[in-house]
Structure formats: structure tokens, C-alpha cells
Write a structure and sequence with these properties.
Elements (H helix, E strand, L loop, with lengths): L3 H11 L5 H15 L3 H9 L3 H12 L17 H4 L3 H9 L3 E2 L8 E2 L3 H10 L6 H10 L19 H17 L19 H13 L6 E2 L8 H14 L3 E2 L4 H11 L3 H19 L5 E3 L2 E3 L1 H23 L1
Parallel strand pairs: 3-4
Antiparallel strand pairs: 1-2, 5-6
Helix pairs in contact: 1-3, 2-3, 2-4, 7-8, 11-12, 13-14
């Protein structure tokens, strides 16, 4: 008599580790070992159809194409293969809400996959939001337009961020410069940007051009984060920071505008060093700090920056 319970126990122990072909072949091996009535017993124990076990027995006797799980042409058809108008209907729903055009480096949509799935279902398509997300990815769309901010709601001006990124990408491509995504994870302290920031500032200085502008802060609801990011950029040697919303301008201007104390110290450094230089010295101490040419150049840039700011404000 065949012990169905023992077969069920053995099969259940290994089934989680097997693919479709593996389950079929193991079931066939159990049936072969059981002898007469083995197929029916194993089918009862494993839930695998008797015809499938029979196919497994044939595979055991003729082990060909061992890397193939199903016979050629076997397996479930893709949703697109079964539904010829699915992609075109999805494209028609997305295009009016597309951020970017088919010729732009970036394509993204601000319409939720849940809503797209509902509209496709209303048209008679058998889809869910997971499938819609997969199809959009295959069509080259990004769903970043729907990404939640830290406060939990999508910002109404989030599209401006992608317009800026897209414009920057197009400008770089027009100059035959590479535009790449390194899939870098972003953290609030922006530690990942340290190398790039330093490289840009050093390259600008080596080329004899003015200091660069730092990249954007994308969370429009986090002003404290924006200020911290701007102060980090200032320490790295940037002269300013790009803004993607008018509300960011005041914060960035405040950070990059020298304080009264910084201006006063810079004036003292320049004056004291000029006096020392006239006396033939290339290094001095001021308030217990060592002052040489790099410090003097920094002080001069502070004074140049505040002079430019005051001139711009006086012209308004």
C-alpha cells in the first residue's frame, strides 16, 4: 500500500525550493518509486495533475533541454500578448498628463497607477496597478512625479523640479556632454554628493572661472534641509545654489550673503595682510589665527560678493 501521507510530507519539505520543472520531476520520481498506482497517489499528495506527473516521467526517461522549465511556447501569455490594445490605451491615458515628451531625455507621469488601472478596467482591460506600473516602466516612464514628500503629500509644484532636470539634461546633451543616472541613494545630509561637489569646485578653480552654483534641493517642504544643504555648499566653495521654487530664494540668499561679522573679519584680514605684505611678510597672525594667501583670497572673495550684492540691491 502506498503511504500518501509520507509522500505529502516529503514533497512539502522540498517544494518551496523547486521551480515548476523541479516540482514536476520530483513528483514523477516519487510516482516511479511507488510503482503501480504511484501517479494517482502522488497527485493526491502533491496536488499536481496526473498528466503533469506523466510529463515528468517522460522527462526523466529523456532528459533533454534540462535548462528549460516549460516546453517551447508553454507558459502564461503576457497581458500585452492577450490584449492587443492595452499599451495603446494606456499611452492615450498617460500622454495628456505626461511630464516631458517622447523626444525628451526624461519621461514621467503624475497620474497614479491606481487611477490608470481603474480607467483601463473601465475600458474593459483586465489590469491591476502592479501591471500598470510594470508597463509604464517598459514604456520608459518614471513614476517619480507621484513620489510623496516627507510630509506625505505631493507638492503642487513638483513638476517644476522635473522641468528643470529635463532642461538641464537637454542643455548638456546639446553640448555633447554625457547625461547619466548613477542610481545614487539620496540622504538628507547629502553625504553622497561630497565627492562631486569637491570635484566641481576644484575643476572650476583650476580652469580659472568663477565658483559654480550648487545643485537643487528637491524637497520643497523642508526649509531646514534646504538651509543645511546651502551651508554645506558654501563650505565647499560654491557661490550660490540653484532654486526650483520662489520660496527657496530667500533661504539661499540668506545663507550665501556674508554676515556682518564675516564682512568685518574679511576687511581686517585684507587690511592687515596688505600692511604686512608691504613690510615684506607673506604670513601674519590675526586674532590668534594664521593668515596666509589662501585666507586672504577667501576674504577678498567675501568682500567681492557683498559688494556685488549691494550693487544689485542698489540698482533695484
Amino acid at each position: 500500500m502506498i503511504d500518501v501521507a509520507a509522500i505529502r510530507q516529503r514533497f512539502s519539505a522540498v517544494a518551496p525550493f523547486l521551480n515548476e520543472r523541479g516540482r514536476r520531476v520530483v513528483a514523477a520520481a516519487e510516482a516511479a518509486a511507488a510503482g503501480d498506482g504511484g501517479i494517482a497517489a502522488v497527485s493526491m499528495a502533491s496536488g499536481i495533475a496526473a498528466s503533469t506527473i506523466g510529463r515528468g516521467l517522460r522527462e526523466l526517461s529523456q532528459p533533454e533541454e534540462l535548462d528549460r522549465v516549460r516546453r517551447p511556447g508553454g507558459g502564461r501569455q503576457t497581458a500585452v500578448a492577450k490584449d492587443a490594445t492595452l499599451l495603446s490605451d494606456l499611452g492615450a491615458l498617460v500622454e495628456p498628463f505626461t511630464r516631458g515628451d517622447p523626444q525628451s531625455p526624461l519621461r514621467w507621469t503624475c497620474k497614479s497607477v491606481r487611477r490608470l488601472a481603474q480607467e483601463l478596467q473601465a475600458q474593459g482591460h483586465q489590469v491591476g496597478r502592479t501591471l500598470v506600473s510594470t508597463l509604464l516602466d517598459g514604456m520608459g516612464y518614471s513614476l517619480q512625479g507621484n513620489r510623496k514628500t516627507r510630509d506625505g503629500d505631493s507638492h503642487p509644484d513638483r513638476n517644476a523640479q522635473f522641468q528643470h532636470i529635463n532642461a538641464a539634461a537637454n542643455a548638456a546633451l546639446a553640448e555633447r556632454q554625457p547625461v547619466i543616472s548613477v542610481d545614487m541613494a539620496w540622504s538628507r545630509d547629502e553625504a553622497e554628493l561630497a565627492h562631486a561637489r569637491a570635484a566641481i569646485v576644484v575643476a572650476s578653480r583650476a580652469a580659472g572661472i568663477e565658483a559654480p552654483l550648487d545643485t537643487v534641493w528637491v524637497d520643497l517642504t523642508d526649509r531646514d534641509g534646504l538651509e543645511a544643504s546651502a551651508r554645506t555648499a558654501l563650505r565647499f566653495g560654491f557661490q550660490g545654489k540653484m532654486c526650483i521654487h520662489p520660496e527657496q530664494i530667500a533661504v539661499v540668499n540668506r545663507v550665501f550673503t556674508p554676515s556682518d561679522a564675516e564682512i568685518a573679519f574679511a576687511e581686517r584680514v585684507v587690511t592687515a595682510f596688505a600692511r604686512a605684505e608691504a613690510e615684506g611678510s607673506a604670513a601674519i597672525q590675526l586674532d590668534g589665527k594664521f593668515i596666509d594667501y589662501p585666507i586672504v583670497y577667501r576674504a577678498q572673495r567675501v568682500l567681492q560678493r557683498i559688494a556685488a550684492i549691494r550693487a544689485r540691491e542698489g540698482a533695484r
